[in-house]
Amino acid sequence: IMVLPLCGGMKHRPHAWLVGDSASGKSWATNEIVKPILGGIELEVQSVTSEAGLRAALRLDARPVFFDEAEPESKAARDRMSAVIDLGRVASTEGGAPIIKSNQQQQVVEYRINSSLFFTSINASIRAGADINRWIMLQFVPPPGPNAPADEREGRAAAFREIQAATAALIMPG
Fold it and tell me: Rounded to two decimals, what is the model's pTM?
């Protein structure tokens, strides 16, 4: 997370995927930790954003990408996310050849994607070995349910209060 703002100047750009069930704290972590660290420089997108859309938005830019709700639920969503993950593979390494495409007017458009990607979702869709090594997987666990022992619920709540306090002390909003 700390290297996301520096991604354009790095020879290797790691990507991160924050995975967790509903109510596991993904939104809190992204709103209270990730976004303040990025300070508004990120390209923020969500669910149905395509690889072509990311490529066009970034073109020659080196901004980090924050991709919320990157859920691979349907076949179309899996195919779309697979293309986005492929773009992340290209973006991982400095000095690679550019991506060359042609627009409707048959003009050549060049893209150099030098971004780190940060995804959040309930499930991740990384399958290829070439991608597993490029992504840091962060797994959040949901809070204990109402039937969990009281000491477990209180212990987890106390730990979260400590995280909130440390975050407030270390990360300045905006």
Answer: 0.84
